[in-house]
């Protein structure tokens, strides 16, 4: 019974069921047998794991061993949690960090790279369980706290202040580059990754309550053509997408529908792109982990802007249904909903950006990367107004503790909506 309670109340499961209905409920229930099996194994191993834990605690003054885990079910959490852990571990610490993966690995290549550089073994799970049930195990527990409390956000700027990254082997690099060259790519040519979430995401489940996060890939066509014209190779990313892109441009590759698609190529492209354009859909965390510039576009809620990275942000448009007015910056932050129904219940209409707005944002970011944009006094004033206003709002400042020096709001968005930065005071 306790296992069932933990399952239901963990990770927002109850909220997911209430929003998703029977389909989501049964999807959650299906996981119970496997979780029960793992728990039985944990208990059966106690005669062996408890003595080891007692020994670990005994030698702590001499050699401090810590046990932790990584959530792998979503690549966004997986990539950022492992990256932040890798840079946060004190290399001069006289001790040992041991980890295990939770079930359902979302990207096998990423798991392989993590295991090459961190101590990840299945049996650590058994020790961690014994450590948990014996009082006094806190000093031997290392869990990615940012995932637990802040949703895998780099609130301390760990990655900004480090150049550490998970490495590819020479064989892996050669494999990907050989595949790229078959497409016509030449060594040194720059790559853009485009990750646009649509309603094919997790199609076997009733995830309609996340529909506000989806976008139409066709609205990105002009932006892709612009980038290709400027000499970039554009790769439309995604494991499961609704429809292929409609293009005859040889420098625009629909990797989501490529017959050779695999986790290695997926990770390498995100890690080595010149820019990752994203609607906020997990895999962009790989680009973040490798400190690649991001353009977060058509993304909500605003409070979730990944300000700890080199990001430019342009949100979807939110309108009050009764007045037809665009919500102000403060109202965007106060109405930072994670479920489509909440926008409806608050009489807010969610409107995707137009192809012209998307193209303007892409051009703005790529010119900044190329060093072709000149920031005017007005531009600096608008950026300062955005950060000063948003950081006064508790829902925003609670999540955006470390601000990357290159984090920006799209000026084309602000200038198109001059009243957006108005701050109402009472």
Tag the structure with descriptive keywords.
two-stranded parallel ribbon, 42% helix, 426 residues, alpha/beta, globular, 19 helices
Radius of gyration: 23 Å
**What is the N-to-C succession of helices and strands?**
HHHHHEHEHHHHEHEEHEHEEEHHEHHHEH
Average pLDDT, to the nearest integer? 89
Which ranges are low-confidence, i.e. pLDDT below 50, for 5 or more consecutive residues? 1-12, 203-207
Share of residues in helices: 40-55%
- Tell me the structural class: alpha/beta
- Kindly give the count of domains: 2
The shape, in one word, is globular
If helices are DSSP runs of H or I spanning 4 or more residues, what is the number of helices? 19
Trace the largest sheet across and list its strands.
Answer: 5-4-3-6-7-8-11
Distance between the termini: 49 Å
Write a brief caption for the model.
With 426 residues, the chain is an alpha/beta fold. It is built from 19 helices and eleven strands.
């Amino acid at each position: 019974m306790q296992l069932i309670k933990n399952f239901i109340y963990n990770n927002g499961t109850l909220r997911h069921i209430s929003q998703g209905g029977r389909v989501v409920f049964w999807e959650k229930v299906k996981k119970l047998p496997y979780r029960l099996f793992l728990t039985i194994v944990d208990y059966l191993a106690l005669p062996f794991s408890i003595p080891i834990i007692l020994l670990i605690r005994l030698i702590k003054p001499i050699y401090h061993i810590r046990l932790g885990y990584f959530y792998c079910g979503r690549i966004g959490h997986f990539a950022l949690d492992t990256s932040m852990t890798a840079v946060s571990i004190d290399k001069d610490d006289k001790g040992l960090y041991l980890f295990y993966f939770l079930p359902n690995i979302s990207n096998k290549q990423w798991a392989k790279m993590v295991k090459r550089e961190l101590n990840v073994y299945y049996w650590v799970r058994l020790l961690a369980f014994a450590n948990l049930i014996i009082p006094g195990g806190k000093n031997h527990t290392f869990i990615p706290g940012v995932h637990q409390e802040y949703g895998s956000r780099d609130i301390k700027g760990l990655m900004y202040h480090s150049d550490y990254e998970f490495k590819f082997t020479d064989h892996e690099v050669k494999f990907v580059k050989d595949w790229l060259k078959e497409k016509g790519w030449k060594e040194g040519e720059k790559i853009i990754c485009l990750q646009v979430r649509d309603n094919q995401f997790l199609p076997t489940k009733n995830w309609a309550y996340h529909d506000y996060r989806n976008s139409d890939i066709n609205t990105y066509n002009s932006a892709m053509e612009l980038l290709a014209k400027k000499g970039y190779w554009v790769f439309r990313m995604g494991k499961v997408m609704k429809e292929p892109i409609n293009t005859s441009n040889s420098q625009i590759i629909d990797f989501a529908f490529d017959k050779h698609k695999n986790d290695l190529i997926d990770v390498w492209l995100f890690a080595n792109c010149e820019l990752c354009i994203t609607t906020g859909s997990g895999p962009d965390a790989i680009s973040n982990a490798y400190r690649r510039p991001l353009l977060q576009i058509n993304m909500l809620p605003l409070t979730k802007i990944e300000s700890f990275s080199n990001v430019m942000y342009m949100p979807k448009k939110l309108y009050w249904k009764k007045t037809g007015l665009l919500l102000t910056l403060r109202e965007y932050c106060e109405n930072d909903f994670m479920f489509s129904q909440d926008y409806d219940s608050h009489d807010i209409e969610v409107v995707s950006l137009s192809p012209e707005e998307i193209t303007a944002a892409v051009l703005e970011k790529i010119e900044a990367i190329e060093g072709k944009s000149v920031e005017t006094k007005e531009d600096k004033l608008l950026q300062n107004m955005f950060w000063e206003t948003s950081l006064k709002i508790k829902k925003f400042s609670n999540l955006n503790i470390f601000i990357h020096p290159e984090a920006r709001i799209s000026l084309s968005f602000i200038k198109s909506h001059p009243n957006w930065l108005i701050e109402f005071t009472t």
